[in-house]
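User: My collaborator sent over this chain with a note saying "see what the structure looks like." That's all I know about it. Can you take a look?
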Amino acid sequence: MVHEIKVADADPAEEVEVVQLNVEVGAAVKAGDALMEIASDKANMDLLAPVYGVLAELNVAEFEIVKADHVFGIVSDD
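Assistant: Without extra context I'll predict from the sequence alone. Here is the result:
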């Protein structure tokens, strides 16, 4: 099964910047691992792995600005 990496309760109109990527595609992750740091006008926060698995896909690059409801990546628990 695949799990999307998204900002919880995001305002779809808000933009966020990817400040730092902490893992690469193919890396094993545990639920709660900080996958990346993002920044908005309101705060900086970590996006966490939703489950134990492998980071199957990254849809952003460092310093990229995207809408807060963007799918930042995919974690696969298969």
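A starting point for your reply to your collaborator: Residues 30 and 52 are 4 Å apart (CA to CA).
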